[in-house]
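Practice problem. Given the sequence and the SMILES for pyridoxal-5'-phosphate, write out the predicted structure.
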Amino acid sequence: MNIVYLNGEFMPVEQAKISPLDRGFLFGDGIYEVIPFYFGKMVGFTAHIDRMINGLAAIGINFDWDHAKWRELCEQLAKKNGGQALGLYLHISRGADNKRFHGYPENVQPTIFAMAFAIPIPEQPDKSTRKGYALKSIEDLRWQRCHIKSTALLGNVLHFQEGQNANCQEVLLYNEKHELTEASASNIYIVKNGVVITPPLDHQILAGITRKLALDILQKDKTIDVEERIVTLTEAQHADEIWISSSSKEIAPITILDGNPVGSGKVGDVWQQAATLYSQHKFDY
Ligand SMILES: Cc1ncc(COP(=O)(O)O)c(C=O)c1O
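Answer key:
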């Protein structure tokens, strides 16, 4: 059972190759389904394909196969692999661009991959022999572990693209309490009355290395006060300056927030001072 489907062809799994620039690999930017198949029949085919089509639409992947086309693929895949009980795995990623950039690429074909794997044949329900499972209860943190620099970046990609759609280079993210967290690929700072303020590190924020270096450089220099504390969206709307930071952008000034000027609407003096200090000291680390 090793015949897979990749971009229009069936082939042994060893021959299936995709680019390392595929956005499914780089960002987790894709949608998948697993459809159970027992003794020649699928379970819930229409519902699985509906969910997949809805998922593709939700993340803006344009791929227009209808149910009949998916059914044909699933049936051929099952036939080529044989077996009485299979999981039919379908995977569509946004495709491979020629660079790594969070925003959606233009003119890139989605990658379509499908494989089959053996699943157990369900037993007849019988409470006298059936063993129960054990559960542990834990808080649901699935998309909230932002402190982990994971390649599962779909949430970041979707937010970044919202910024692109609004002709912005980044987005300012806030939580349900309207407290700033970070940006989709950068950390965030505001400046008020000469003080640089940035949200404290927790699970909502990636501990950026540029942030770490910048705070250390500013704290050693002592000419600019720095605070790590909760910053509200309202404070950002009334800030004198806003900056973002990342390894590729270093410290970057923001002059427009939601169409309004930040402070004077010009790149600020505190940014000038901080960015200069950063460029002077970054190689000390
Ligand atoms: C979500 C997020 N926050 C912050 C950063 C900035 O981190 P660093 O300064 O280490 O590049 C990044 C960089 O990729 C990021 O993806």
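Check your answer against the key. The two ends are 52 Å apart (CA to CA).
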